[in-house]
Amino acid sequence: MAYTTIDNSESAFLTFKYTGTGTTGSTLARTFDGSVNLKPGLFYQMRLESDGHATNIMECEYLGAGVHWLSTSGDAKGSSFSGGTKENLESFDTNGFTHATTNQGSYYHNQDGDEYIVWAWAETAASNVSNTDGSISSTVRVHPTSGFSFVNWTGTSADGTIGHGLGARPKACWMYPIQVTANNGNTQRVWWWEANSDGYNINNGLNESQRVEANNTNGIITAHASGEGTSTVFSVKEGNSSFENVNHSSQNYMAICWKEVQGFSKFGSFKGNGDDNGAFVYCGFKPALVMIRAMDREEGTFCYDNGRNPINDDTSYIMGVNDNQRHFADTNTRFDFVSNGFKLRDNGPARNTNGTLYGFCAWAENPFVTSKGIPTLAR
What we know:
The chain is mostly beta strands. The chain folds into 3 domains: 9-122, no CATH class; 129-258, no CATH class; 265-367, no CATH class. It is 1% helix and 37% strand. A 7-stranded antiparallel beta sheet has the order 9-10-11-18-13-14-15, with no helix packed on it. The longest helix is centred in the last third of the chain and has 4 residues, at 349-352. The two termini are 27 Å apart.
């Protein structure tokens, strides 16, 4: 098997940092600064200021630019939900994106002088496919190279399996409800990671801390190796009669399912050691983005990226995803990106408590070894 199928990771994922201008009244195109063109299909955007307006915004190609989820309030929004007005993105572009006129000049995406970070995965360039692999039919759009799929299904208020189209057991499943208002007002974004215990996942409630892993009475999403996940399906299960979190009758859900791609993505766990000489985690590539969370703490998911941390030093910035954890750095956030993984350099409780199990997700800046067997350089 080749070391990797993605020699230039920026063709599949990149981070992009920009500064707002305060410009209002027209759409605003932004061009990525990577080494190759990347048209986004999955897009996260965060403001880096700490004044209470650090909204985390997710958009994706499955519902189209302009339909977004916020970390702090509300339902999915955009052209299908707000009378045709797009509120964040106007479009995904050949090598970047265009912000819509709504909220121009505001803290959402263009406050004058404020910094923003974007995480962008390349579009799938695929069509929707009907999938009947599970007991619940789904519509699937797969990115076979980058290793993720968008999966859409209608709830049944019962345990069931759902086809994901990846061809390998998922290592993570991130669920986003499309009809929060119709779904008894439920605002959970239920995530499952490979590090979760059997029958457990993470509930990411709006305006809440990310809870410890839980077997929630309103239902879970899981692809655990016990049989809850396979090369064709993941599971929704163990809810009460409403299943609001993941499978409420007649309601609309979307999940982003991830598999590992050698040399590009890695999902797993490590144990903290409580020491400034912290754990080293092998990935097989130099990461561009790492998400870490303790499985037994409510401190949220802490994310490091090469857009905010372009070099390894004593100022390593973290921030949350799908919650309201703000961008900051202190003596408990020290972290190194290295040529074949990452290393913790602090004893912070949210990332390196002795004996605590931590889950992680990581995507590459570049592979450790190219498809031609050429090693890449460390920082």
